[in-house]
Amino acid sequence: MIRRFLTLLGFAVLLTACGGQSASNSGTPFDQAQGKSAPVILTSTTFLADMTRNITGDRVRVESLLPVGTDPHEYQPVPSDVQKIAKSTVLIVNGLEYDQFIQPLLNNAGGTRLVITASDGLEARQMKEENGKMVIDPHMWMDPTRIIKYGENIREGLAKADPDGADVYKTNADVYISQLKEVDAWITQQVAQIPEERRLLVTNHDSLGYFADHYGFKVIGTIVPGVSSEAAPSAQQIAALIDEIKSTGAPAAFLNVSDNPHLADQIATETDIKVVTDLYIETLSASDGPAATYIDMMKYNVTQIVNALK
After folding, report:
1. What angle is formed at CA 32 by the lines to CA 27 and CA 37, rounded to 5 degrees?
2. Is the same domain home to 166 and 217?
3. What is the structure's pLDDT at 129?
């Protein structure tokens, strides 16, 4: 947790520094990129890349630092990541300690770029870990109404980096925000199929809290304590979760596609719970998969949840 604190502190300093450099007399980040290479917008994750492409359209190239299928909680950077950041004109991150693996890469990449934190201005969920420390839940994107603010932050940041494209970004962002509102209404309709007493969630780690809060679910427990999939539960914690599942009658446990299902399968042998192993929470799917875009991801996840609980 000390490492997380230092990472967050360093990242805050970085954001301040980059913001100042971006506003210097040398021009906008896009101006600085001209003559060197085509401007590149780099995002930390695949779902942020998709959100950003909806706002940029064809105006600029958008890339994700993390590849499809990768859980940021467990990601181990490779040397080519430094090169990608070094070439970037704009870097878009989730914030809330979710992208903490980026800090040492930024230190090594050097140069200047505009850093946009997509979650800026949103109030985060707080939760208590086993050691009693309060931590922030970064998984805001599981509530599409919060992605409206993500879109606004990305739009405003891109307009600063590329003022000539501001009208394009605004038009595209308005369309995308309308789509997000439609998805929110669709999810509400789907969730209505689940009896209220069955709107119970067991997750691998605490990743569906924002989803639960917005759509009226209750998270009765997690297999791995905390908001990261890196933690390891004790035997007592597993036993307590089994008791909670039995007492509440929770029908299913939900895992991200990259989660190891071993512990969930053990719990299933002690209860009648169904284990759903193919939610896309930390990453999008490949382009030919069921969650190739953020909106597809939400629709797919909701369909899996509804089918398991109704």
Report:
1. 160
2. no
3. 64
Q: Are residues 226 and 303 in the same domain?
A: yes
What residue numbers bound the domain in which 218 lies?
190-309
- Tell whether 163 and 247 lie within a shared domain: no
Q: Which of 134, 156, 184 is the last residue of a domain?
A: 184
Give the separation between CA 263 and CA 48, rounded to whole angstroms: 30
Strands 126-128 and 134-136: antiparallel
Using CA atoms, how far apart are residues 54 and 98, in angstroms rounded to an integer? 22
Torsion of CA 58, 84, 43, 33, to 10 degrees: -50
Look at residues 163, 184, 205 and tell me which one is the last residue of a structural domain: 184
pLDDT at 131: 63
Residue 132 is given by DSSP the state S
Burial string for 227-256 (b: 16+ CB within 10 Å, else e) reads bbbebebeeebbeebbeebeeeebbbbbbb
Q: What is the mean pLDDT of residues 284-299?
A: 97
CB 138 within 8 A of CB 95: yes
